[in-house]
Here is the input.
Amino acid sequence: MNEQKEERLLDLLCKRVSEGLTADEQTELSELETTVDSPVDLHSLELTAAAIATSSVRSDEQMPDHLKAGILARADEHFAEQNKASDRVVRTNVENEKTSMPIWGWLGWAAAAIACIALAVNIYQTRSDDRATGSPTPTPVPQIVSPAEKRQQFLAGATDVIRADWGQGNMKDLTVGGDVVWSEAKQEGYLRFRNLPQNDTSQYTYQLWIFDESQDEKTPIDGGTFDVNADGEIVVPIDAALRARGAKAFAITMEKPGGVMVSKREKVVALAAVKPSTA
Here is the structure.
């Protein structure tokens, strides 16, 4: 068997251990095994494959040190004997000028098998970290908090919340319900809408404007853009570009995709005025 066949046989054996073979590959492997004219200990490789396969069985405790040491010691003894046997065969073949496998091929087989045993021990130790229940430690799944849930948490924690209800803008055919809540201390707030139409994102977007005591009414604070892709009640977090001080009103306009720096307020969808405190 030439060097190419030897390498192919080793490749197929490793693949059978790690991921399995197709029907064609199994047939090829069987044919190659019948052509091996050397004392290759295929049975030892099969045992190594079995060790890796059985290592997937969950264990409630780590492999004892003495057992691990015993496995490695037996592996050393096993391959020492194999090397002696292979040396005898190689010497005989050299004398007869009929070497069926070069010594480097034998070293390759031994190295591959030792690596397989090391892999089996490593997998065993990794799997042994499972809980006593026999189930692996579950990976924590990040909890996704919806804008509506964030709004509830915000209302429960903020102490200076102002609230304003949405009223009609200059688009008389739209009647939008809901409200806006805002905390100046936290610089955080949420918009809640009912009956706000879904928008064609290729045509326009919605944009929030915050009117406060620090800005001229002609240039209110940009509160961020958003789109509506579902019917029913929606909640949108406010994304103010500047710090708002003494918010007096909020407005929703329809703008070109991406929003604008300054709105002409040609299409005001809804307005929410903050009522003066009676305290």
About this structure: The mean pLDDT is 77. The chain has two domains: 3-127, 147-273. The helical segments are 3-18, 23-34, 42-54, 65-95, 103-127, 147-157. The first strand starts at residue 161 and ends at 165.
